[in-house]
Amino acid sequence: MEKREFLKASALLGAAALIAPSVLFDSNKVYASPAEAQAKGPFSLPKLPYAFNALEPYIDARTMELHYSGHHQAYVDNLNAAVLKTPMEKLTLDAFFKNMPKYQPVIRNNAGGHFNHTFFWETLNPNKSLLLGGLDAGIKKKWLTLDAFKAEFNKAALGVFGSGWVWLCVNKSSKELFITTTPNQDNTLMVMPGNKEGVPLIALDVWEHAYYLKHQNKRKDYIEAFWNLVDWNKAELRFQETNITKK
Ligand code: MN
């Protein structure tokens, strides 16, 4: 389904059926213009919402540049190469994720890589924000304190063996918050056997490419630095969207 049709379908079905793609997918950024789509495929690298050096000293400019221009671009390019001139070129990331076992690993890895990095850039913000509102209440209901929540998230992040991601999610039906990890470029939107599904609110990339230049083997320091950059306002907006869909 193309983006416009997807939006139309969302409107027709009402908020109960689908999560509005605006915050989760930020569709305008993720999907290319028709001209770009014709040139090299339907997916394009979203604009980074800040400068490479904006996250200093917590994440260094060189890491950001390589991570965005090198790694993220490669996921986009590989995804385009895999779908171009096939029936898949009309599909959205969401369509792949909803039927993940139907597709080859190259789709899973690169559609995941594209979504996860887009989501990660938007999880981060150089401007400090405070955890407030419904998400604040939800976190305190489950973990009692923000520090206790962070401790569990940090433990999960340290426990990822090899490459992967850590997520704070909300269960679409029960509205319960939970922390989970995914290997490689998997994420919690992928519907497939053995995957714990949830709507992501914040994400942390724990692949070595995300921190090795600055922190080398000290993943713990990178995880600590990450908390200075989390955009709690964005996380709260995502959380609110899941509540709207409940009604
Ligand atoms: Mn990465």
Strand content: 5-15%
As residue ranges, the low-confidence spans are 1-34
- Tally of strands: 3
Largest sheet: 3 strands, antiparallel
For this structure, what is the CATH homologous superfamily of the largest domain? Iron/manganese superoxide dismutase, C-terminal domain
The top level CATH class name of the largest domain = Alpha Beta
Helices and strands, in N-to-C order?
HHHHHHHHHEEEHHH
Shape: globular
Class inferred from helices and paired strands: mainly alpha
Provide the CATH topology of the largest domain.
minor pseudopilin epsh fold
What does the model show?
This protein has twelve helices and three strands. It has a three-stranded antiparallel beta sheet. The longest helix is centred in the N-terminal third of the chain and has 23 residues, at 61-83. It has helices spanning 3-13, 21-24, 27-30, 34-40, 61-83, 93-98, 105-123, 133-143, 146-159, 212-215, 219-226, 232-244, and strands at residues 164-170, 177-183, 199-205. The chain folds into two domains: 32-123, Helix Hairpins; 133-241, 3-Layer(bab) Sandwich (minor pseudopilin epsh fold). It has 247 residues and is mostly helical. Helix content is 50%, strand content 9%. It is globular and about 50 Å long. β1 (164-170) and β2 (177-183) form a beta hairpin. Residues 1-34 have low confidence and may be disordered.
